[in-house]
Amino acid sequence: MDSSINREEAYSKSLSLLKNCSTRFGFLASLEKSDNYKRIWARDSMITSLAALLTDSKPLHRQVKYSLLTLCKYQHKHGMIPSNVEPFFNKVSYGGSAGRIDSLLWFLIGFGQYVKRTNDRSMLKRCYKKFKRSYSLVHLYEFNEKGFIYVPQGGDWADQYINEGYILYDQLLYYKALEEFIYVRKRLGKDVDKYENILSSLRKKILVNYWLEKRHANSKYVYNKVLYKIFSSKKNYSKPYLLPYFNPSGYGNRFDAFANILALHFNILSDVKKNSLLNYISLNFSSRTKHLIPAFYPVITSKDREWDDLRNNYLTEFRNKPYHYHNGGLWPMLTAFYACYLSHKNKPSALKYLDAINHANSLPSNSWHFHEYLSGKSFRALGTKYMAWNAASSIMAYECIINNKRLFL
């Protein structure tokens, strides 16, 4: 890591990229045309919007609004929010081999955060019906009314990874989306008692079902008692973090960084579990990974039983070679979410992660290409260049650490 990179310079470079990714329709995911990145992506634009809303830039605030309006315009009649939109030619996609459920969830979160930050009541009234339609749809993904949404393989940001079923990352987004839904209804003077009870129950269900403990085997919050008893007795499923998913076949046990970091932000964990998780991240993803966070860990190799499932899950080319992409690749975007959390807990440590983000964005050789991720082995910059959410990563971490702001309200 090159600690000589000036933080203010990095902030300026990042702002410049966000401005270049700005259109009258909102934030483009990237300036690169490959793989449809030069589009308005729901997930990318809403994560980028979190950073934009932390700045004092009114033009960037307007970009958040434009992004939301574009997603609303192309909302499916059933309530689905597009995965991505090419608004210049009215091209819209709701997913690839599976629909993108987290697009819907990030839209709900982004809308709520925008209203909180800007107090734009006219936008609130203008889009509430679409907002409510999206929430009503995601509620249907529970299928059996037991509190968790079911996500197909490839149905969220880890679109070429192995997760499938009741995925932790999506349950946490569902939790935060419900929080935003409650806030919006309160602003409009609508009843929220029912939804607050659902929110309280969902928090307990997440903690019980993804952090396995034998003492909870008979809890009323356990989703599948047979699976829970079997896997809570297995040593390699007793982890210092929340497990990534379960489905009718069993549990996954790899570390899902995005999910666990969101759990920290959303205050899901007890203090004891929170410290356990923080110690795990510090031990595994500080100096050894040059203060960058991998998407999933440990890496899946050809020796692992999951390899065939991973190897066969791609659209145009296989990206998840060991230490690449979601399979152990190091992501500035994920690192930023962690740095923002640390900013109010351990500022010296948070600054190390900020410097790592800026170094990654500057590669190769101070060219500021804002590559999607770095190899978890060689630390070489890989993936798509000029990613808006990588620029957002530097901005959100800087605003939280240097200016003491909070990523989520």
Characterise this structure:
The protein is mainly α. It has a single domain, classed as Glycosyltransferase, CATH 1.50.10. 48% of the residues lie in helices and 8% in strands. The protein has 14 helices and 14 strands. A three-stranded antiparallel beta sheet has the order 3-4-5. The protein has a three-stranded antiparallel beta sheet with strand order 6-7-8. Strand 1 and strand 2 form a beta hairpin. Helix 6 runs antiparallel to helix 7. The radius of gyration is 20 Å and the shape is globular. It starts with 6 loop residues before the first helix and ends in a 7-residue tail after the last helix. The relative contact order is 0.13. The mean pLDDT is 97.
- SSE order, as H and E? HEEEHHEEHHEHHHEEEHHEEHEHHEEH
Beginning-to-end CA distance, first to last residue: 31 Å
Specify the CATH architecture.
Alpha/alpha barrel
Number of helices: 14
Largest sheet at a glance?
3 strands, antiparallel
Radius of gyration: 20 Å
Residue share in helix: 40-55%
Percentage of β-strand residues: 5-15%
CATH class: Mainly Alpha
Task: Please identify the structural class as seen in this structure.
Answer: mainly alpha
Note poorly predicted spans: none
CATH topology: Glycosyltransferase
- Mean pLDDT across all residues, rounded? 97
| Envelope shape | globular
The tally of strands reads: 14
| Whole-number count of domains | 1
Sum this structure up briefly:
This protein has 409 residues and is mainly alpha-helical.
